[in-house]
Amino acid sequence: EVGRATVDETLKNLNHFGSSDPLGIRNILGGNSLSNTASTTLQQEEGALAPAILFKLSEERSSGISFADVLVPRTVEVRKRITIDDPLVASTSKPRKIQVMATTTETVYATTSRIRYVEQGSGHIYEYDYASSSSRKLTNTTIPKTQEAYFLDNGSKVLLRYLDNTNRVIENYLANIPTSSVADKLTGEFLPSNITAISVSPSSSEFFYIAKTSSGSVGNVYSVKSGVERRVFTSAFSEWLPSWVATGIFVTTKPASTVPGFTYLQSITKNTFTRVTGNRLGLTTNPSPDGTKVLLGEGSSLSILDVSSGATVAIYNLNTLPEKCAWLQTSLICFASEGRSEANLPESWYQGKQYFNDSVFNINPSTGEYFFLASMSELYRKEIALDVTQPTISKDGKTIVFINKIDVTPWYLNLEDLLSLF
User: Fold this and answer.
1) SS (H, E, C) the chain
2) What is the pLDDT of residue 355?
3) Residue 369 confidence (pLDDT) above 60
4) From CA 146, how far away is CA 172, in angstroms rounded?
5) CA neighbours within 13 Å on the CB side: how many for 202?
6) What pLDDT, on the 0 to 100 scale, is given for residue 307?
7) At residue 358, does pLDDT exceed 70?
8) What are phi and psi of 368, to 5 degrees?
9) Is the pLDDT of residue 269 over 80?
């Protein structure tokens, strides 16, 4: 079948997973279901009440989700040298200090990863600890109509975008997330209200935003640590979508299926503005973290562009959009279905006129070949339809979080457990 990798080619191209048959591909290629071994494992886990690989974090609508690095205290026993009064010296005599070895306790801090998300209706921030499978509320400050949330500075800050009382202006508030008890009041600062698009830097310590002006638009880089911003981009055109990766900021014209789209690379260090690709109808993009490749969507057609050479590799018979995929090392995890859509993508999806019923696929960016991992219903253990948006992979590559576009709820997928099934 066109688009699907052969067994030997797939094993050869995906050897970065570190074993000769890392995902049991020989069992799953050529079929659209989990292998018998994986299905049996799921049944055994289900009988033992093991946690699901895929589950919903909240029943409430969410405006944003990401990962946070959190310092967790832990009390440990240590052997150390301490100074005490010599017990052999009489109490009537002058005290004499001696050093002895003793067992005492100390508090140490270790960094662990948590999931943080924002409720759309209330603006309340929640944290999920997947090590203990527990959630807790971090803030009580109510901010109705929170449309978007971007987590920054390793999840310690959040940029909340919400509608004002007129429902016409989007306010932008950069808030500090409390580290201990639940905060009844958020602290932070307001940013300009004319911001149209945002992309967080790879380090999450800065973000790039585009703001409309009377002559077009400008692009500024804002440091969340210093509060200092600098101008890096100016354009007579105002409809841009940015993506910040290692080599700079890719900016793509907002897409429509009947309008040619263009993508450029704005270098932060060299201050250059270079055309990457263009004249593609309905163009949407998702650049790799290192900036060497870009996943392109042209309506319902997918391809992968090599930025250096300009060569493209087509991905056949896979129905999805670039923003429904996330880069994992040298491969792509995509939420998609096989076949083609006849709708006017991507605007029909943006406008809510079309929804996807996703399964999980892995794509080899070098060849354009893909293989099926599992359907959402198999992972959730009951019939479910999920249309994935905003997929984000953790730093260690073990976890994916996303928003279900159908009901805007936050979800969690244990990628490590999924891959270990095969």
Assistant:
1) CCCECCHHHHHHHCHHHCCCCCCCHHHHCCCCCCCHHHHHHHHHHHHCCCCCCEEECCCCCEEEEEEEEEEEEEEEEEEEEEEEECCCCCCCCCCCEEEEEEEEEEEEEEEEEEEEEEECCCCCEEEEECCCCEEEECECCCCCCEEEEEEECCCCEEEEEEECCCCCCEEEEEEECCCCCCECCCEEEEECCCEEEEEECCCCCEEEEEEEECCEEEEEEEECCCCCEEEEEEECCCCEEEEEECCEEEEEECCECCEEEEEEEECCCCCCEEEEEEEEECEEEEECCCCCEEEEEECCEEEEEECCCCCEEEECCEECCHHHEEEECCEEEEEEEECCCCCCCCHHHHCCCCCCCCEEEEECCCCCCEEEEEEHHHHHCCCCCCCEEEEEECCCCCEEEEEECCCCEEEEEEHHHHHHCC
2) 92
3) yes
4) 10
5) 15
6) 97
7) yes
8) 80, 0
9) yes
Angle 338-341-344 from CA coordinates, rounded to 5°: 150
Instruction: Give the long-range contacts of residues 20-24, CB within 8 A, separation 24 or more.
Output: 22/419, 22/422, 23/362, 23/371, 23/373, 23/419, 23/422, 24/421, 24/422
For residue 178, is pLDDT > 50?
yes
15 contact partners, CB below 8 Å, separation of at least 6: 22
Residues in the chain: 422
Token pair 């390793």 is at which residue? 154
Contacts of 325 (CB under 8 A, 6+ apart): 286, 295, 332, 333, 334, 335, 336, 363, 391
Place of tokens 């100390």: 106
The pLDDT value recorded for residue 299 is 86
For 13, the token pair is 């191209």
Q: How confident is the model at residue 48 (pLDDT cuts 50, 70, 90)?
A: very low
**Residue whose entry in the numeric block shows the structure tokens 């163009």:** 283
Is residue 319's pLDDT more than 60? yes
User: Which tens digits make up the pLDDT trace of 413-422?
Assistant: 999 998 787 6
| pLDDT above 60 for 24 | no
- What pTM was estimated for this model as a whole? 0.82
- Cα gap 378→363, rounded to integer Å: 20
Is the bond preceding residue 346 a cis peptide, omega within 30 degrees? yes
Q: pLDDT of 377-393, one tens digit each?
A: 999 988 999 999 999 99
Average pLDDT over residues 47-73: 81
User: Could you tell me if 315 and 368 are in contact, meaning their C-beta atoms sit under 8 angstroms apart?
Assistant: yes
